[in-house]
Design goal:
Strand content: 15-25%
Structural class: alpha/beta
Number of strands: 19
Number of helices: 15
Shape: globular
Amino acid sequence: MKRLFALVLLSVWVARAQSVTRLYFEPLEKPEPSAVKLREALMEMASKGKTAAVVEHAEDADRVLSIAGATYIKGYVGRNIRVRYKNADSQPVYGGYLSLELKTKEDQPVWSYLVTPRRFGPEDINKNLAEQAVKKLTEYLLNAPPQSSVPQQNSPQVLLGAGATFPYPLYKKWFATFQKAFPGLTIGYRSVGSGAGLDALSKGEVDFAASDIPLTNGEMAAYQVKIQHIPSVIGGVVLTYRLDGFPRELRLTPEALAGIYSGKITHWNDPLLRAANRDFELPDRKIVVVHRSDRSGTTYIWTSYLSSVSEAWKSSIGVGATVTWPVGISAEGTDGVAELVAKTPDSIGYVEFFYALDHRLNYASIRNRSGQFVQADLTTLPAAALEATPASPDDLRISLVNASGKNAYPIAAFTYLLVPVTFKDATEGAAMKQFLAWMLDTGQKQCGALGYAALPAEIDALAKKAAEQIQAAR
């Protein structure tokens, strides 16, 4: 009996040992002090779990974990919540993020995620972020799917693309990772904005365009070849702001947003803003509105949202890659808007989610259709696509703005690669299909680390079918 019991214990121990993943933590690319502390907190917490063991050398690992992150002080709070500035009784309030990417030893991505602080308050930000990260990593390791592969292509080939800044942080990472796996294929990409990318595609200057702006039927008919809209990822537009002395999470309603960008709300202590932020005193200072100067898919998403929540905006200003702004100052590109907000007190501007994190900007919670105030993250962005249904299996132009889900972030969108169905050059057509197959499989596993959400399974399957239609001219 004792021998049987010992065998059972041994089998349990072996099963547990086999389920433990040996993790190697890559050195930080940017070893800033706050990132070093995040890495240390994450390593300590991961080593205490039952699903992972931290090893010192990459050759001893089953998986390699690459991380990036930062923490910073947003402001100060004290016993009197209406005191906005630092004093003897106050404590710092932190913002930040922690990004994770899990890879094979061959440097191929298998999973990624990004966490932001889940609670407001003067607490241990490193522990807060590390706890969330370890929980998500553990969930993945316990349910990790088998690895899939994309057939190799060895013939040298160069593809050129241009367009959207909205997904550029992810596209830059995709192209670099893809080229490591397929050294014979190089992808050049110019992040010049959706409008400029579409112009370049129409002139035949590039092999594909990237755009957050779906073409209309009339616009597609103007192209000499049929164009496929291939959704690549889900992203979110956030409202960043610089409101010195206001560490609390700013809450904004659709009415307030339309009012600010139409010029009807001019001061931070407007009654509509105060009504949504009752726990804190807003300053009597003028709002500086920042918007894009160039033709922009981010502007298209932003104005699509405003038109969906405000009839006055829809009838007077409308939707577009550029619009006639009633108020504000402009900047070129998403980076330009982020940088202008960062240096301009009392300003507000719209940028893609990761740009706000990368520039260490505060971003607001937005009230969605269900009446919930939500921020963009890897829970609320996928929630916006839960009910996403294409008009037909061959038409993947779908709007996600102002989605109805309880936890849906209301300013979310698919972004697209616009690809000719027929390539004159057979090798270019084969190379494009090769990249799209990789993007819609392995590439989706890199989305989370930069704050983008992977495509829903149904949309991903339809996108793969659309990509399979690409061919060389006969």
